[in-house]
Amino acid sequence: MLVNINTHRRPIDGHLAALAGERVLCSEYRYHKGTEIFGEGEEAEYVYQIVTGAVRTHKLLADGRRQINAFHLPCDMFGFENGSNHRFTAEAIVETDVRIMRRGSVIEATESRTGGIRSLLRLVTQNLKHAEDHMLLLGRKTAPERVATFLVEMDARLGHPRLMTLPMSRRDIADYLGLTLETVSRALSRLRDQNLIRFEGTTQRRIELLRREQLAELGP
Amino acid sequence: MLVNINTHRRPIDGHLAALAGERVLCSEYRYHKGTEIFGEGEEAEYVYQIVTGAVRTHKLLADGRRQINAFHLPCDMFGFENGSNHRFTAEAIVETDVRIMRRGSVIEATESRTGGIRSLLRLVTQNLKHAEDHMLLLGRKTAPERVATFLVEMDARLGHPRLMTLPMSRRDIADYLGLTLETVSRALSRLRDQNLIRFEGTTQRRIELLRREQLAELGP
DNA sequence: CGGTCTTTTGAACGGGGTCAACTTGCGTGG
DNA sequence: CCACGCAAGTTGACCCCGTTCAAAAGACCG
């Protein structure tokens, strides 16, 4: 489900601002939990930036096996790294507000801006760097290492909060790390038993990292 | 080992031509088998294009586990997808001639060329697409599927020759596919026993694909 | 030839997957 | 408010695919 909030010209944040200045028309849309933002193979007309919420992008094999490429959090841009068609599917994990602009207008704005090309390249290469790091994880790390790496990554991207609330399920984490949800659950329980993390309250998605250095060492 | 062949202005091939026209100064170097072209963390000053030979790029974990991101073949460009520092190591697999140009001059040439930005972006997003496909392989495919996918990929990139000569060892293939060399060897032997591939002559690196469609189905 | 590196093949092990049971959280409606 | 249904998460038991360890057979080069 998709709700158009508004269309406007106004200051924009982070990468988008660095790229295009404040001259590009954009709109805000709201996607409800679990809904698709775009599908694999669809035409890639827009660029997306998350305002609030979280998005996952994934690929599927014919028999349903799923690999999540990345999770996107507020201020992150996604959907840009495409030629003409999307190479994966993007879905809202939770209630999510997304800012949308035309791909073409971003490129045009970039052309007329000094350093614009480098900003644009940096944006794509950030995704590439993430993919390369993730290939190392998927190809060569053990299950406990993957889970520790995941926690450290999320901690950093959420700004090292005392208590982090993961927007994604165990299954999502598993499909991101190339594991099964049971293995993820066991690894987290193990970290809890070792007093490296703590589950806050009743829900299993609120996690406090008790020893960040040791967690970082576990995910080499 | 590195040998400077020459420095010249002359027509250049493929991506490089699309990017920069024929106006950019470039040099050719020869790297001997097994030598490093650049290392992880080094400053990324140059862009590389293979003339003849083959290159592998990899990352290492502290304990020596290795993940090969990609193999590069003649006409391929690499080393570009960097901000200021290289995020991985590049090594010649066999005797390799490489064309080298300054990163900065490529960007400048791009800026003054219509459609240059899109060409540049396409170059980087090609790498990104490959990385995304490879994450799906590393995260979700079985060993036989990975090996079949590898053969089909190499066959396509070598232009579907009747007989393909792989430049890389079983260990390289294994580190690319997130497996051990023994598993790769066993999977290839299995394919040979099923009459899907055939080893030509004495060396195990010359392979003929006997049934391309069936191989493609094996790597979904 | 001998020496070294690559590749294959076999045997045994174990990490993570599979299958299943159970618990818990969280609506939704009576 | 509780009863019910369902999705999410945990935990245990078993098993299998791919790793590990080991040996031997090429391939290549002096």
TrEMBL record, chains A, B:
Residues 141-213 form the HTH crp-type domain. It comes from the Bacteria. Gene3D superfamilies: Jelly Rolls (2.60.120.10), Winged helix-like DNA-binding domain superfamily/Winged helix DNA-binding domain (1.10.10.10). InterPro entries: cNMP-bd_dom, cNMP-bd_dom_sf, Env_Response_Regulators, HTH_CRP, RmlC-like_jellyroll, Tscrpt_reg_HTH_Crp-type_CS, WH-like_DNA-bd_sf, WH_DNA-bd_sf. Pfam families: cNMP_binding (PF00027), HTH_Crp_2 (PF13545). Keywords: DNA-binding, Transcription, Transcription regulation. This is CRP/FNR family nitrogen fixation transcriptional regulator. It comes from Bradyrhizobium yuanmingense.
